[in-house]
Amino acid sequence: MQPHECLAHTEKWVVDVIMKYNICPFARREVERASIRYVAIEETKVKAVLKALIEECQYLDEHPETETTLFILPRGFEGFYAYLDLVDDATYLLVDNDYEGVYQLATFHPDYCFDGEAQDCPANYTNRAPYPTLHIIREASMEIALANYKDPESIPERNIAFAQRKGSEFFVKLLQHCTKGI
Predict the structure, then answer these.
(1) What are phi and psi of 26, to 5 degrees?
(2) pLDDT (tens digit per residue) in 92-118
(3) Cβ atoms 80, 111 nearer than 8 A
(4) Which residues, listed in sequence order, are joined to residue 48 by a DSSP beta bridge?
(5) 31-42 pLDDT, tens per residue?
(6) Three-class SS of residue 48?
(7) Do 73 and 67 contact (CB within 8 A), yes or no?
(8) What is the CA radius of gyration of the chain?
(9) 134: Cβ–Cβ under 8 A, 6 or more apart, which residues?
């Protein structure tokens, strides 16, 4: 898999799944503004990935016109539990580098599974993506977006209800579609 393919697949997922089905009600604005940065990290070692993550935060510091980054890990974190270990390390690293309250991470993985849910539960698809991905979000922007959104607490429940209605097979086909023909 070439990095440009991962970027194209992930961008297609954002437009054809996240935006189209309003999984994230804030995505459309950023897609239309072209303020989402897509970065494929070729590193597979945790230390190197974490270094690249901090470098990406520094990039965001220097580029306020870039609202958010999808930090895509096409290799090395295919296993969901290894990915979760990386997420824990990344979260601690943000704190250690004084990024707590500046950036937060949202997590996506092809095998994402909520704690206590069956692997094939449709709700898991609200956090499934073509590749393991860390979404670096500006906390200040998120606070503004949430303050201007009626009942933001309903977003996860609405997404889970939508996923349950559509079923797993619907989302399997959507994700397959995102990685075909590019």
Answers:
(1) -100, -5
(2) 999 999 999 999 999 999 999 999 999
(3) yes
(4) none
(5) 999 999 999 999
(6) helix
(7) no
(8) 16
(9) 53, 70, 71, 73, 87, 90, 105, 106, 107, 108
